[in-house]
Recover the amino acids of this structure.
């Protein structure tokens, strides 16, 4: 805002960490004309993280991870998987983004 000026900024989007929430609240208090929007992707990621703690969901994700590792660690099985799934790939899981767990499970179907 310093670079373009207050009058040229109408909205700002932040992550949902405590520091960003605190800073966003302070900024809104000072500049009443601004609209503050928390990051939707981060909110969805937090929701998926909580859903991932439900017992049946957690078990399904663990089974999908085991299947994925098994398939990728055995070249003949990987070849057969690709052949039978029309060259479909299983999405590799990421440590930090919970959405990849659900995408990986969906890619095995």
């Amino acid at each position: 805002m310093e670079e373009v000026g207050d009058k040229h900024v109408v909205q700002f989007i932040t992550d949902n960490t405590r520091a960003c929430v605190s800073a966003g609240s302070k900024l809104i208090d000072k500049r009443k004309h601004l609209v503050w929007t928390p990051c939707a992707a981060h909110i969805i990621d937090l929701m998926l993280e909580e859903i991932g703690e439900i017992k049946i969901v957690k078990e399904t994700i663990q089974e999908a991870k085991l299947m994925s590792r098994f398939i990728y660690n055995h070249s003949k099985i990987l070849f057969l998987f690709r052949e039978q799934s029309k060259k479909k790939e299983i999405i590799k899981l990421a440590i930090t983004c919970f959405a990849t767990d659900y995408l990986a499970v969906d890619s095995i179907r």
